[in-house]
Specification:
With 120 residues, the chain is an alpha/beta fold. The protein has a single domain, classed as 3-Layer(aba) Sandwich (Rossmann fold). Helix content is 43%, strand content 22%. It is built from 5 helices and 5 strands; from the N terminus they run E-H-E-H-E-H-E-H-E-H. Strands 2-1-3-4-5 form a 5-stranded parallel beta sheet, sandwiched between helices. Helix 1 crosses helix 5 and helix 2 runs parallel beside helix 3. The chain is globular, with a radius of gyration of 13 Å. The termini are close together.
Length: 120
C-alpha cells in the first residue's frame, strides 16, 4: 500500500511514517505543497494523510490536485485546530474520508489508513 504524508512538522511526520512502515506500508513523507504535487505526479497513492495547516502551501490545493491526478486516493485530514470541526471539509474535498486531530495516536491513525484503504 502506497501512502503519502504531507506534514510540515518533521517529528510528527516521521512518527506517522515509522508507524505505517511497521505495518508494511510504503510511505512517502513531504513537507510542502510543491513536494506533494511532485509526489502525486510521480506515483500512485491509495491514501493521503494531509495536515490542513502547512508551513508552505495550501492543503486544499493539494486535495484538489489529488482529486484530479489520483482520483481514487482517499484523504485523511489532520489538524491541531478546531477549523473545519463542523465537517465542512467533506464538502470541500471529494476524496476526504476522515478528519482527525494531529494528536491522534499514531497506531490509531495507522488503523484508520488500513480501514479506509480496504474499503476502496
Amino acid at each position: 500500500m502506497e501512502i503519502l504524508i504531507v506534514e510540515s512538522q518533521p517529528e510528527l511526520g516521521s512518527l506517522w511514517k515509522a508507524c505505517l512502515e511497521r505495518r508494511g506500508m510504503k510511505v512517502t513523507l513531504v513537507n510542502s505543497q510543491t513536494r506533494a504535487f511532485t509526489a502525486l505526479s510521480a506515483q500512485p497513492f491509495e491514501m493521503i494523510i494531509l495536515d490542513l495547516i502547512l508551513a508552505e502551501g495550501q492543503a486544499l490545493a493539494i486535495a484538489d490536485y489529488a482529486s484530479y491526478r489520483r482520483p481514487d486516493a482517499r484523504i485523511i485530514f489532520v489538524t491541531n485546530t478546531s477549523f473545519f470541526s463542523d465537517g465542512s471539509i467533506f464538502q470541500l474535498s471529494s476524496n476526504a474520508c476522515d478528519f482527525v486531530q494531529s494528536a491522534t495516536p499514531p497506531e490509531d491513525l495507522a488503523s484508520m489508513v488500513q480501514h479506509y484503504a480496504n474499503e476502496s
